[in-house]
Design a protein that fits this description.
The complex is a heterodimer of chains A (about 130) and B (about 425). Chain A is α+β, with helices and mostly antiparallel strands and about 130 residues long. Chain A is about 20% helix and about 45% strand. A 4-stranded antiparallel beta sheet of chain B has the order 1-2-3-6, with no helix packed on it. Chain B has a 4-stranded antiparallel beta sheet with strand order 5-4-7-8, with no helix packed on it. A 4-stranded antiparallel beta sheet of chain B has the order 9-10-14-13, with no helix packed on it. In chain B, strand 1 and strand 2 form a beta hairpin. Classes of the chains: A alpha+beta (about 130), B alpha+beta (about 425).
């Protein structure tokens, strides 16, 4: 009786420790973080995922948005992609070949439109 | 009990990614040497402790240093604040948020755009678990005592004790494991994976002058454009290395002309500095830089100065001083051997103060210009500088020792003969 009670208390203890630690680790890993960058003509907020790059134009009027991505650490350069306009000031590029691998990427967002032409560069983390 | 705890500990160690070395540190000042408006000075962007909050910018220079106009721009939202800074008169700028910023520094018609990140340490997140665990334990121990006092049956007391013990266990585990747990990046840090590889592709440089063929005695711009060897894009991830984005050494073929300057970043991947050469001929350039997360690189090049020698430039140049007044040089052994360490000792006039992170610098060039070395002083007390350096091959070497005093930067030129 004493033995089973002791064992149960140990299990409760271990369970609690595991729950607290697991909750903490889950809290530390978050979704893709949007990155905002402001230039002289445009301002954008970009959310990059493995298969999709979401570009919101916060300032300026853009007709086209093209993106080229570089992984500085490895020297990888991806072909330029043109993002599809899905709504006013909202552009999305989709595909399986946006990024060669996960990690830190530098995105150059080239915007053209009534506000002129400008390239904004930002760094983001691409996860699976 | 022990087994279970060991299992939890093992799981934690297995889950925790290896602690990554962070290049950017919150709480550290950024010191950047710049050659601007004919002056050599060091800008200090002080560490920020909170946002919104003040960002202090200082200029460390010499009596002749100009006043600099500052323009701080947040890359995230485009907000701009302005100020001025001069040696002894720091600037206080306001920052609203962490993350990428650009500091534009202007004086005498020249400007540099210095990209940097405002970082604020948010502390290791694991502390939350330590203090949280201890807090829960303390709370429940008080609760446990009260439960014990008012309740005769053991069950609630047992639960309270179990939870309190769990709190203590979590806190103790984290305290023990903390050295192996990943450190949280400061707020505003560049996004990077914890296991990011070290090393980046090599840099290709294009060196040019504006005008393309500068004339002796006339001011010209030496421009270095940097491109990534793998992608062909401009290289704009220079790390601050020995307190500068890049160190540019320009020498005439015969070594009578010597400049060690810190070019201004005028555009992504572009560095520029204004120079004036007194005599026509070929000039050799060496750019020392370091990409983020990488080792140092030396990029070489050359340009030609036309026209005829100007008489005034050589004497009015503060960087070239007579060795007898600037310092005495002793090389030990007197006849150094190739491949063996030799010691160069320089007695200085005046007490050297740190410049580019060191008390003194020794630049060594082989006579043909194929080799360039940059040696650092090892911290000798008093008005002496000591360098240890192994001349790589027999031959004649042109060398320049540089140190800073309150009056300015002194350059002591000398030559060393390494016999066969």
């Amino acid at each position: 009786m004493m033995r089973s009670k002791g064992l149960r208390s140990l299990l409760v203890l271990a369970g609690l420790v595991a729950v607290v630690v697991a909750a903490f680790i889950v809290a530390r890993t978050s979704d893709p973080t949007p990155v905002s960058t402001t230039g002289t003509r445009y301002a954008v907020t970009v959310t990059a995922e493995r298969n999709a790059i979401d570009v919101r134009v916060d300032k300026g009027q853009a007709d086209t948005v093209t993106i080229d991505s570089v992984m500085l650490t490895m020297g990888h350069s991806m072909p330029e992609v043109t993002a599809r306009r899905t709504g006013p000031g909202h552009f999305v590029a989709e595909g399986d070949d946006l990024f060669l691998m996960t990690g830190a990427w530098e995105l150059s967002i080239r915007l053209t439109g009534p506000s002129g032409e400008e390239t904004l560069t930002l760094n983001t983390l691409v996860a699976d | 009990m022990t087994r279970l705890l060991c299992l939890v500990a093992l799981l934690l160690v297995a889950l925790a990614p290896p602690a990554a070395a962070h290049v950017v540190k919150a709480g550290a000042d950024l010191r950047i040497a710049q050659t601007i408006a004919g002056s050599e000075l060091t800008l200090v962007i002080k560490a920020t402790t909170r946002v919104p909050g003040p960002l202090r910018v200082e200029a460390i220079g010499f009596p002749t240093a100009p006043e600099l106009d500052l323009r701080l721009r947040s890359v995230a939202d485009g907000r701009v604040v302005r100020g001025t800074v001069a040696p002894g008169r720091p600037a206080q700028l306001g920052v609203e948020e962490t993350g990428p910023h650009e500091l534009t520094v202007s004086a005498g018609g020249e400007s540099a755009v210095i990209p940097f990140r405002v970082l604020v340490d948010r502390g290791s997140g694991w502390e939350f678990l330590i203090y949280g665990g201890l807090f829960v334990a303390a709370l429940l121990l008080v609760g446990g005592l009260l439960t014990g006092a008012f309740n005769r049956r053991g069950r609630p007391a047992f639960v309270v004790t179990a939870v309190a013990a769990a709190g203590v266990a979590v806190a103790a585990l984290i305290v023990i494991l903390e050295p192996w747990l990943p450190a949280a990046a400061p707020d505003g840090a560049e996004p990077r994976p914890t296991d990011s590889a070290v090393g980046r592709p090599y840099v290709q440089r294009v060196l040019s002058t504006v005008p393309a063929r500068p004339a002796a005695g006339e001011e010209f711009v030496a421009r270095v454009e940097l491109f990534d060897g793998s992608t062909g894009r401009p290289v704009d991830d220079l790390a601050i290395h020995h307190e500068a984005m890049a160190h540019l050494v320009v020498t005439s073929e015969d070594g009578r002309y010597f400049r060690h300057v810190h070019p201004l970043r005028t555009a992504p991947g572009r560095l520029e500095v204004r120079l004036r050469a007194d005599r026509p001929g070929r000039y050799l350039t060496y750019v020392e830089l370091e990409r983020t997360d990488s080792g140092g690189q030396l990029l070489t090049g050359s340009f030609t100065v036309t026209g005829s020698a100007t008489a005034t430039a050589a004497t009015s140049d503060p960087a070239i001083q007579d060795a007898s007044t600037a310092g005495t040089v002793t090389v030990t052994p007197a006849v150094p051997q190739a491949g063996r360490p030799a010691t160069v000792e320089v007695t200085t006039s005046g007490t050297p103060r740190p410049w580019l992170g060191m008390a003194g610098h020794l630049i060594v060039r082989s006579e043909d210009g194929q080799f360039l070395g940059h040696v650092h002083e090892m911290g000798t007390p008093g008005s002496r500088l000591r360098f240890t350096f192994g001349f790589p091959a027999p031959g004649r070497y042109l060398a320049w020792t540089q140190y800073a005093t309150d009056r300015g930067i002194t350059t002591v030129p000398f030559t060393v003969e390494v016999p066969r």
